[in-house]
Amino acid sequence: MGIDINHKNDRKVRRTAPKSKDPYLLLLVRLYRFLARRTGQKFNKIVLKRLFMSKTNRPPISLNRLNLNKERQEIKQLFRDIEEKRNEIHREESSLHHTRISLQSEQHSLEQRKLLFDIERVKMQDLAQEIAKRAEELESLGEIALHEKREGHMAMDEAEKFRVELDSKLKFIENSFTKLRAEEEKMNKMKAKVEQELDFIKETKDNIVCNLCSSGLNRVKLNGMTRTSLQDMANVPSFYGSNQWSGLPDDRALLIWQITGQQDAALLQQETAFINAIRTQTLDTDITFQQNEYFIN
């Protein structure tokens, strides 16, 4: 049987770095440390472990593992990949830098545009308030215009009614005016006839001589008498008026002639007053008609 060895105080001694200060050895250690870490191949780890050992304790390496050409190609390929990745990272960093610069410039421009938009928003709010005020004013003006339009239509209707009434009144006035013209012509004819009769009566009066006093009737004074008094005197059987000569009674023919003359004078006075009234009414009608024509025009 073998002897039982006590391994209580044993420890595993292994190096993690070479003791030598050789710079070339240190460079090799750095290289293979990187390769063992990044490639994960066992050969690189064995070489790194051998580099940590001393020259006396360094074990030999089999030639089948020293396929240097293949390893060199792999190292070159790995170096190319690393360089490509480094360049790619550098390009990405540069592109990111340019992107960051462009984003900063865009951010600055966006901030400027935001300020401009804020200013425009304030202006638009002011314009919206002003437009709202103008809309309210236009709405009130529209209501006023609509009310005035309605009043205008009502006024036009009233004017049309007034025009129709005025036309009817004018037609009535024209008809009345024509009637008054006809009446005036008729009264003028009657007046001319009465004047002719009055002239004839005056001539007859001047030519008649009283049988009792042998004096003309133009010397007898005629007093105005009313129709009632004429009727009362007509009923009297006999009448003797006083004469300017001494106590000579008047003739009955003279009395009848006097009564007839007074009656004709009263009728003539009434007709003259009626004609004057018609003339004044005609003048008033002409003035009213002219005013109505001026108002219509």
UniProtKB/TrEMBL annotation:
Pfam families found in the cross-reference section: Ribosomal_L18
Record carries keyword Ribosomal protein: yes
This protein's UniProt keywords: Coiled coil, Ribonucleoprotein, Ribosomal protein
Ribonucleoprotein keyword on record: yes
Cited InterPro entries: Ribosomal_eL18, Ribosomal_eL18/eL18-A/B/_CS, Ribosomal_uL15/eL18, Ribosomal_uL15/eL18_sf
Domain of life, source organism: Eukaryota
Molecular function terms from GO: RNA binding; structural constituent of ribosome
Stretches assigned to the Large ribosomal subunit protein uL15/eL18 domain: 2-73
UniProt cross-references to Gene3D superfamilies, sorted A to Z: 3.100.10.10
Annotated coiled-coil segments of the chain: 65-95, 173-204
Stored SUPFAM superfamilies: Ribosomal proteins L15p and L18e
Single GO BP term: translation
Gene Ontology CC terms, in alphabetical order: cytosolic large ribosomal subunit
PANTHER family recorded: 60S RIBOSOMAL PROTEIN L18, LARGE RIBOSOMAL SUBUNIT PROTEIN EL18
Family from the record: Belongs to the eukaryotic ribosomal protein eL18 family.
Protein name: Large ribosomal subunit protein eL18
